[in-house]
Design brief:
This is Cytochrome P450. Belongs to the cytochrome P450 family. Helix content is 45%, strand content 10%. By secondary structure, the chain is of the alpha+beta class. The strands form four sheets. A five-stranded mixed β-sheet has the order 1-2-8-5-3. A three-stranded antiparallel β-sheet has the order 4-12-9. It has a two-stranded antiparallel sheet with strand order 6-7. Helix 7 crosses helix 10, helix 8 crosses helix 9 and helix 10 packs parallel to helix 14.
Length: 407
Amino acid sequence: MGEALRRPTSTDVSNPRLYQDDTWRPLFAQLRRDDPVHYCEASAYGPYWSVTRYDDIFAVELDHQNYSSASELGGIQVADQPKGQERPSFIRMDPPGHTAQRRTVAPIVAPSNLANFDTLIRKRTSAVLDALPRNETFDWAERVSVDLTNMMLATLFDFPSEDRAKLTWWSDVAIANVESPDAVVHSEAERTAELVKMGEYFRKLWDARIDAPPTFDLISMLAHSDATRNLEPREFIGTIGLLIVGGNDTTRNSMSAGLMALCENPEQFELVRARPELIPNLVSETIRYHTPVLHMRRTARNDVELAGRRIKKGDKVVMWYISGNRDEDKIERADEFIIDRAKPRQHLAFGAGVHRCVGDRLAEQQLRILWEEVLARDLRFELMGPPQRLYSNFIRGIRSLPVRIVN
């Protein structure tokens, strides 16, 4: 049966400071080597298991019979949602309820529809790049990453363009760690109040569309689907919040992380300039190397064994994607940024199984077009200071990235 004991240890990788300070690597390297399915007895979020190797994370992802995402069991983060303030959504559900709601929104990011976005994304990307200042420092995260992602979100929702900054704000509110001094909200009550405002705004759009013929946008699709048209108020807020965060954070932070990695590895920037056919590889390698979603949590439905460790019913099981994507036994030279890898799509940053990111191809499309347009202009960049990272153990966010165009 393998080892059955939970060995007490002080290795706690849930501290958000590890990711804000970018000091997480040695802790996960040690866990992967010595105790890859590791029980942390005490943390700010209670006891939890850390799953740190690629194959073990993949096994948990695929086994939703034993490992649940359900909101009523705690949801998808190492931190439980506050009692009475839970915001269920299909990412916090197991099949079959998850399947029906996910199927409602999936068509908008299906490959057959992504081609319809190509021209629009390219036009917007070109305009944003052409408007950047030359030979002076600016914030790439604000001027490029935020701007491009909230424009795309507004398109997906058919949301009023003049108010699209609200989408970025609500995304930041939804994922904020309220313990951080620079958080956009500082209590769960304040977060809830802001998300209620979000719900009220979207409810007006919803009500207008439910009384009109169906259109091909997320709000109309939700409003007209049998699986989602009668969402309870907190589930309505949870579902809208999920779509905003899902459509924002992976892409926004990968846009910033990609530029940072290319500037820190100039030989890779030169390689993609010489071989632009490597841009899709660059996109996948950026997403792996950065890993914008640090973890997902499951709750054990049953007593179960994983890699020789006995997990009890009710235990928190945290899949650390940031660690699985650095698993040296699965990914050669995993700590290096290498855009011509033989298997660039071999990563866990989008999850796997029934909960794999529904918008993964759209995220890749936006990133691909960004780098195509950067290369078309032969833009060359210099980092002008360190990034300002988000205080979070859930989203690996880059709040600010000062850069300069040097040509």
